[in-house]
Write a structure and sequence with these properties.
This protein is of the alpha+beta class. Helix content is 26%, strand content 29%. It contains nine helices and 20 strands. The strands form three sheets. Strands 5, 6, 7, 13, 14, 15, 16, 17 and 18 form a nine-stranded mixed β-sheet that branches. Strands 1, 2, 9, 10, 11, 12, 19 and 20 form an eight-stranded mixed β-sheet that branches. Helix 1 packs parallel to helix 5, helix 1 crosses helix 8 and helix 2 crosses helix 8. The longest helix has 18 residues. It is globular. It binds flavin-adenine dinucleotide. The site of flavin-adenine dinucleotide has 35 residues, from helix 1, strand 3, strand 13 and strand 18.
Amino acid sequence: MIQTFDVIVAGVGGMGAQTCLRLAERGHRVLGLERFDIPHTFGSSHAVNRIIRLAYFEHPSYVPLLRRAYDLWRDLESRAGEQLLFITGSMDIGPTGSAVVEGSLASCREHDLPHELLDPTEVMRRFPGYNLPAGYEAVFQGDGGFVASERAIVAAVNLAMANGAVIRAREPLIDYAPLPGGGVRVRTPKGTYEANRLVLSSGSWIGEHVPALARTAVPERQVLGWFQPKKPAHFRVGAFPVSNLKCDVGHFYQFPVWHVPGFKIGRYHHLQETGTADGISREPTPTDEAILREGLRRFFPDANGDCLGMRACLFTNTPDEHFIIDALPGFAEVIVASPCSGHGYKFASVMGEILADLATGKRPPFDLSLFGIERFTASA
Ligand SMILES: Cc1cc2nc3c(=O)[nH]c(=O)nc-3n(C[C@H](O)[C@H](O)[C@H](O)COP(=O)(O)OP(=O)(O)OC[C@H]3O[C@@H](n4cnc5c(N)ncnc54)[C@H](O)[C@@H]3O)c2cc1C
């Protein structure tokens, strides 16, 4: 017998878990299908936490979404009875006039965000874990911090199920097709389902489900690591913010010590290794460690101790590094909810709400024009 739902969500990771929750709490019949376990370590949302920041160097138009994202993370944590959002302050750091600093300042000015522009001496006075050379500057914004990314998936899935959602792990979507009278039929190895709408939140696997995105949504291997601080007091929550640091050898991001041992650091676009989501190696190597140690050695020498852990994780990059959140051209019942080009997790809470709107015929109260799919599919 074919089971029917209002909405099927394929991919219960960062975006999909929040979408299942927002749909279920509105009373919709929702089926969440996840290929692996919930949560798991093969996608984009593992390795404990993700930075959230209002000073958005990528583009000022993300800031209204971020304000709502903060509200919804707080809503999730109050309902889950668990702290998921940790405010540490954020810094965007780079050589004077660099795009990271100027972009961050542009967001602060356009949206009246309280912020400070700090020179290296002031950064190191406030946060002695940094070692910044002359010629750098930092935008400090007090609302930045991090979200407990895996715990937030667990919290959303538990609440979604408590609100009636059916969530099935180890059951991948195989394919989907339009139903003659409208709606979508979805096949998995275990059965066939029908729904009014399908949300494709399959992250790095999106190109397998939307062939027109196979070349534009490109999975990329990232590796991050945790390292033993030599001066632990400088790297604890309260003494160290979250930050982005752009320099001549790349763009590093870092977190205070939290939940697992060690100071966490990664480098955006790491070794620029692209491939298929299944083909990319998840095994960290000594070369990966050397990349991260270069950032530690130069900017965080007091955290350049023994390696305590490393993880590989996937970005899914679009050519302009903005998201794709849109209905599929020619098949409006299917909503694409990925990819997020390495900066999407912080938005997962608000994306859940937006995707729940799109999947139920409501107009989301945000300008989503930056995320239209036709900017890529029109010429595909
Ligand atoms: C190392 C690293 C650091 C990052 N740092 C930050 C940060 O600090 N701040 C930030 O905001 N963002 C950050 N990002 C980006 C952010 O983590 C991602 O944008 C976000 O996690 C993407 O969520 P997602 O739901 O699209 O993907 P995922 O969480 O991977 O979810 C996709 C899910 O779809 C499932 N799936 C795939 N195929 C199928 C199928 N056929 N059927 C069913 N399920 C399927 C997958 O198993 C997976 O669970 C980082 C990413 C990485 C890798």
